[in-house]
Amino acid sequence: MAKLHYRYASMNAGKSTQLLQVAYNYTEGGHKVRLFTAKIDDRLGTGVIGSRLGVTREAEVYDESTVFDKLLKRGSDLACVLIDEAQFLTPTQVHELHFLVHDRNLPIMCFGLRSDFMGIPFPGSMRLLSLAEDISELKAICACGHKSTMQIRLDDDGVRVRSGDTVLIGGNNRYRQVCAACFYST
Amino acid sequence: MAKLHYRYASMNAGKSTQLLQVAYNYTEGGHKVRLFTAKIDDRLGTGVIGSRLGVTREAEVYDESTVFDKLLKRGSDLACVLIDEAQFLTPTQVHELHFLVHDRNLPIMCFGLRSDFMGIPFPGSMRLLSLAEDISELKAICACGHKSTMQIRLDDDGVRVRSGDTVLIGGNNRYRQVCAACFYST
Amino acid sequence: MAKLHYRYASMNAGKSTQLLQVAYNYTEGGHKVRLFTAKIDDRLGTGVIGSRLGVTREAEVYDESTVFDKLLKRGSDLACVLIDEAQFLTPTQVHELHFLVHDRNLPIMCFGLRSDFMGIPFPGSMRLLSLAEDISELKAICACGHKSTMQIRLDDDGVRVRSGDTVLIGGNNRYRQVCAACFYST
Amino acid sequence: MAKLHYRYASMNAGKSTQLLQVAYNYTEGGHKVRLFTAKIDDRLGTGVIGSRLGVTREAEVYDESTVFDKLLKRGSDLACVLIDEAQFLTPTQVHELHFLVHDRNLPIMCFGLRSDFMGIPFPGSMRLLSLAEDISELKAICACGHKSTMQIRLDDDGVRVRSGDTVLIGGNNRYRQVCAACFYST
């Protein structure tokens, strides 16, 4: 029985590396996979999944208008679907993916952030956490040495920003992953 | 470093049994714990946590007006707080509990459902999934033999009900835990 | 695809409670299970699995001469086999169980200790850790408040014993679960 | 409280990739790590950890004569020790590493195979499974599409070899990761 998998982490845990490793494992064994990433995340150019270790691979892009049901035809020989930056999925898309997993017995693995810089969950991440049959956390490291589970936003001067738009890709702002103790005490 | 723990499951997995076992383990070792359950859930009487295996234990009750910060005084010798039926916590209460874990280095373990009979997540469960440092699933079994991760509601005649109020405790309606494949195909 | 499951823990984590809960979950759903415990462990009488929470249930007994292949007939309607005190299985029996899981598509769940009071693994536990497709730890609590993963033996005067026979059931000796830091520092 | 971590997998799961990602995460945060790999594994040259994704990094080598207690001086500013090909550690070395974790509050992460091509556990892996406070599995994929947990050895003609020396690095023999069902049925 196929599962909807969700691998969540704070920033800089190695989510994309793990996605690329899983894709490699399937492909090496002769299995077919499809990779998606969010159109909004164009840090490396549109349609590229890249790891801080230096590995990159092309991917299809999705945005809130994407209908996965149309893209993932029934009866294909697809072994697995891998989705990066899955926090940008809409709740409706997550429901659609969950249905596709079980209707077509097709494993789908989503990788993404849990919550934004204010500790507020992304709507897509919430729905993934509510429906996935397999949830696991990738560990990143806080500056204090503990496991980080959250992130904070810094402005140009390195001062923490406590409110603002959830999404701010490619701005001059910076993010840093932190453990909850540092999130509350700094 | 203390953690916010969330043990989620569909109905009839044994959540209350595990809560009572953890409470027993702490108490047996001379450690002090406090147990809470939702006031709204009065199936066994108000303020009782009970397991289908036949074990019961008294607990304090909480509702949406409960301020845990007042109940859990700083500097007490408390080793752990255990909360049953945690799907009824408000998102604000979950944030408060998360802060208390890290401000007071106090482990808090919450046990509850993930989603309602329509597959919609409870607001409290969503916030727990977004903030907990340790998330794990307790396994219940679908009638088909697979792991159940969801529940459906049945009416008096055993016919599946697909819409209605999320909470309906002690009514004549009945619930049954199912795997996602059965959730979508029945 | 069925799995060999191994739930290990130090003493007093609640292994038997969890086994009895899983058995209850299957039975309640109309699924058939068989329970085994080690003949050598007669603390509650032969053939009884008991939880510190006060729940007990009869079980079949096994010893090193048991051939599970003969007991678990092909083609039965068995949904799951549950084995308590699995540290007393021989490596050969563990291999046999692993084969039966995959030959008959029959889930088998083993519950037991990992290592003895000297930190030396039980032969059966080692083989379970080497072959099980699903391994998880049940948490017990050290007197210091941390998770316990090991155990120590005490003599009649409460003094730690550092060598001796691995198995000593029902003697006047006592065991206590500890975390590794306490194991090495006391 | 630091832990001994063990990440096990069958071949071709991505163990070295994950090790290199963890090392990167620590180093990027300004934390100091030391990397070790087995001297016997010279597929990429001695003292190199390499991932099938194309990432490599130099590492110190260990063999059965290595005394980690001497190498890992007390009071250093080391944040983590990472050991690849950990199935080649001796049981005594694993005990030493476990002691060092708790004596010096130093996290040590070991990555390695669980069992050899006959399904027999490596002595070092067994001891890691018996002592590690944190055990997790990295998933590789069997040719049949299921999770692989074991490996088989093939000869020059691609015929399965069922007995022989456990270790045979760099020979003309080949290995392939398989699930248990394929291990028993082929």
TrEMBL record, chains A, B, C, D:
Localization terms from the record: Cytoplasm
Ligand binding (substrate): 167-170, 175
Domain of life: Bacteria
GO biological process, one term: DNA biosynthetic process
Catalysed transformations (reactions): thymidine + ATP = dTMP + ADP + H(+)
Gene3D superfamilies linked: 3.30.60.20, P-loop containing nucleotide triphosphate hydrolases
Pfam families: TK
Top-tier EC class: transferase
SUPFAM superfamilies reported for this sequence: Glucocorticoid receptor-like (DNA-binding domain), P-loop containing nucleoside triphosphate hydrolases
Record EC number: 2.7.1.21
One GO MF term: ATP binding
InterPro entries membership: P-loop_NTPase, Thymidine_kinase
Membrane spanning stretches: none
List of residues binding Zn(2+): 142, 144, 179, 182
Chain residues that bind ATP: 9-16, 84-87
Active site: residue positions: 85
GO CC list: cytosol
Record's keyword terms, sorted: ATP-binding, Cytoplasm, DNA synthesis, Kinase, Metal-binding, Nucleotide-binding, Transferase, Zinc
Subunit organization: Homotetramer.
Family: Belongs to the thymidine kinase family.
Name the record gives this protein: Thymidine kinase
